[in-house]
Beta-carotene isomerase D27-like C-terminal domain-containing protein (Manihot esculenta), 262 residues
Amino acid sequence: MVALSLQSVHFRPAQQNPSLQTWRPRNFIRCRIAEPTGKPAPLGQKTKYNDGFFEKAFMALFARKMEKFAAPVKDGTESKNKRWFDSDYESFVDVSRRVMQGRNRLQQQQVVREVLLSMLPPGAPEQFRKLFPPTRWAAEFNAALTVPFFQWLVGPSEVVEVEVNGVKQRSGVHIKKCRYLENSGCVGMCVNMCKIPTQDFFNNEFGLPLTMTPNFEDMSCEMVYGQVPPPFEEDPASKQPCFADICSISNPNSNICPKLQA
């Protein structure tokens, strides 16, 4: 789910930006946590957020793009046509859950791909490839962008140093407690609606490798730009069981989340 809309952000080509020090982000969308400590809530508790107008606008935009793929609500009525500032994160997660209904793993991932493509102007992937060839600079630059622009989606995060192909670089993003996983409580949604489609989108559409490694013990996540992800069958996330105690569609009797099976 982490894909950048090139309609609202302007970039300079890589050759004009020799280092991240020359780039100064402004007017970022900040994720405001309402917890007294200013940090994500402990595992087992949901973090409270103070979402502003722009955060809710992004939630509404994604939800409306996904709504046409979603199953009807359980009582048979259509979802409320909320105004932008009436949207909330729970509604966004609910739409994601309804998108999963009646679709297998690959179909779920394809829906996310179509939604992400619909968020971009025509020709955006090709332009991205020209501006951001798979270099260390491109990987570090996209890591720097991820932290401020997508905190509304995944929660607080920070750029960290990682090692890619034996080279240390600041192209890693540590998500302290993923908001999407925390609110959905669903392993299948994390993997099928976020991790795999986001990795594939950056690799296949943008030409920039990305690996996402969720930690299902504390709900944190590591993103590494520039690192090629393993095949699905070899990815530890593909063998993860359900959150039996918190997932509304879990199967406690299965060793692997049913949504991760083909």
About this structure: The mean pLDDT is 84. The chain is about 35% helix and 10% strand. The radius of gyration is 18 Å. The first helix runs from residue 53 to 67.
